[in-house]
Amino acid sequence: AAVESAPAIVVGSGYGASVAALRLGQAGIRTLVLEMGRLWNTAGPDGKVFCNTANPDQRSMWFRTRTEAPLATFLWLDVVNKDVSPYPGVLDRVHFDHMSVFVGRGVGGGSLVNGSMAVTPLQSYFAEQFPTVDTAEMYGTYFPRARAMLGVNTIDPAWFESTEWYKFTRVSRKHAQNTGLKTTFVPSVYDFGYMQREAAGTATKSALGQEVIYGNNFGKKSLDKTYLASALGTGNVTIHTMEKVTGISRAGDGSWVLSAERIDYSGAVVETKQYSCTYLFLGGGSLGTSELLLRSRQSGTLPALDASVGAGWGPNGNTMLGRANHLWDTVGANQSTMPVMGIDDWANTDNPVFAEIAPLPTGLEHWVSLYLAITKNPQRARFSYGSGGLSLDWSGAQSAVSSGMAKKLFDRINSANSTIYRYDLFGSPSRVFADDFTYHPLGGCVLGKATDNYGRVKGYSRLYVTDGSLIPGNIGVNPFVTITALAERTMARVLVEDTAP
Ligand code: FDA
User: Fold this and answer.
1) For residue 106, is it within any domain?
2) Can you tell me the distance from the alpha carbon of 306 to that of 297, in angstroms, rounded to the nearest whole number?
3) Largest CA distance in the chain
4) How far apart are CA 93 and CA 437, in angstroms?
5) Phi and psi torsions of 262, nearest 5°
6) CA-CA distance, 21 to 16, in Å (whole number)?
7) What is the ipTM of this complex?
8) What residues form the membrane-spanning segments (predicted)?
9) Which three-class secondary structure string do you get for 100-156?
10) Tens of pLDDT along 382-425?
11) CB under 8 Å to 83, separation ≥6 — which residues?
């Protein structure tokens, strides 16, 4: 088959990939983006592009016969998950032995399915995790650049205090305050102006219509509406969808050669393709980039990769849990899917936790306060690649560190409010803390270890990593703003030093 070549290729189309594509395109470099998922721009039979969490169909999950939502059950009934037909749906859940990882699939990667929380990490913790990065420059230049491009906005506090859609958040705030804990608003890339129109009945409901993990039809500034739209606007960027890059090798003339498999909507491989480029940017996410590099080392085509490729992985300490409220403390049947507040106990050096107040939008009063706790779990794991594909040596004992930290915080909250945990949410009454899945896979190609200080892969030239695999396992807040800002920093450097003629 003919080899298609471009000066630059970007693998994936999530945060790191989209930044690379835009900045390459603006620099006048013709760039090809290869994404394994589909482009989400065509309405299904119901007139909508995405399905909601209440009625998931084939669009929900990546080649499944049944959905695998984070909350397995409700009141011990398996009412949450539904049978679906296999299709390249927008949310994937990748299973390893003791950890499963939620990731987005499609043009825009995780931005299509995530909760929109756009949080800049604490500067001191960023410095702790990235000792070789100039933090003044990050906080002065790259974080502001990332937030502006992503369209970060904040909820109007007066509307927040009055709307029924955030009563669940105000109840959880009260319980945190009763415990003597601090809460803080969390910025978002969901357009709060749009959300207020949803509440007023003048715009089609999306965040207020139970849409989130299977995509939002309106309101959300996902990457296809920000970075990727601008990238295409340069005229230099092309996106190929439904193509998974399976291997990387280097030709005699120093150019990169990629093999890719194009699949159809049934998942069948319909074509094997070959690409070549001068500059190669990996943005497949923590799992995608780690898999691609380890697979290429295993097959002998990238033998000089550093031994630390695959290492330094962590789930950002993620733990979900629910509390049961008193009958008089109603959380409301109407809940926005976009979280806007966190309980910030990160400064508690004995047990640093940042816990987001999460919605559970069922359309019925359920008295549940739900949380996604991000804990400062120091445990790390390593990916490897073998005959069974990608594996991860994360253990149950390592997860127990996350849930142990979450428990310490929420035992305090329960005790101050005379409340208890909910036992019916995660599949079995003995599972109060869901610590065996993560939304925030981080690491596998850590900055300054597997790469130089700017994401250039050690052992090779003109090979870059721009995604969440650069972050060493934990960043203390939701990660996409950090991933975006680090990618901006890499691109600024690379376009000055590496691509100049
Ligand atoms: P990302 O995962 O976004 O993109 C990788 C892309 O590459 C995908 O589209 C994938 O299909 C593609 N790909 C992978 N391998 C490939 C290959 N070999 N060939 C071709 N394509 C390939 N974060 C946050 O900050 N705030 C939040 O509110 C949330 N909430 C949240 C909810 C849910 C349900 C999820 C799943 C995740 C979040 N996150 C989040 C996490 C956030 O979405 C995540 O950290 C980023 O999307 C990661 O960005 P990356 O650039 O690393 O890759």
Assistant:
1) no
2) 10
3) 72
4) 9
5) -95, 130
6) 9
7) 0.99
8) none
9) EEEEECCCCHHHHCCCCECCCCCHHHHHHHCCCCCHHHHHHHHHHHHHHHHCCECCC
10) 999 999 999 999 999 999 999 999 999 999 999 999 999 999 99
11) 65, 66
Report pTM: 0.98
Question: DSSP class of residue 249?
Answer: E
Q: With 0-12 CB in 10 A as exposed, 13-18 as middle and 19+ as buried, what is 255?
A: middle
CA atoms within 13 A on the CB side of 189: 30
What is the number of structural domains in the chain?
A: 1
Question: Is 294 a domain residue?
Answer: yes
CA distances from 365 to 222, 320, 396 (A): 30, 20, 34
From ligand 1's centre to the CA of 279, what distance in Å?
Answer: 22
What is the reported pLDDT for 501?
Answer: 64
Beta bridge partner(s), residue 464 = 281, 456
Tokens of 492: 């600024």
469 contacts 443 by C-beta, under 8 angstroms: yes
Comparing C-alpha atoms, which of 482, 9, 5 is closest to residue 282?
9
Neighbours of 276 (CB within 10 A): 17
Q: Amino acid letter at 342?
A: G
Dist. CA 445–CA 120, nearest whole Å: 21
Residues having CB closer than 6 A to ligand 1 are: 11-17, 34-37, 102-106, 109-110, 113-117, 213, 244-245, 283-286, 288, 292, 439-440, 467-468, 478-480, 483
| Ligand 1 centroid distance, CA of 467 (Å) | 9
Helix (H) / strand (E) containing 399? helix 396-417
Taking the centre of ligand 1 as the mean of its atom positions, its distance from the CA of residue 379, in whole angstroms, is: 22
* AA letter at 299: S
CATH number of the domain to which 32 belongs? 3.50.50.60
User: Where are the strands (E) in 167-312, listed by range?
Assistant: 183-185, 237-240, 243-250, 256-263, 269-282
Token pair of 231, please?
């990238």
Q: What is the pLDDT of residue 1?
A: 64
157 within a domain of the structure (yes/no): no
**Is residue 411 included in any domain, yes or no?**
no
Determine which helix (DSSP H) or strand (DSSP E) holds 484, and give its type and residue range. helix 480-497
In this structure, are strands 383-386 and 389-392 parallel, antiparallel, or unpaired? antiparallel
Q: What is the mean pLDDT of residues 174-179?
A: 98
Active site residue ranges: 356, 440
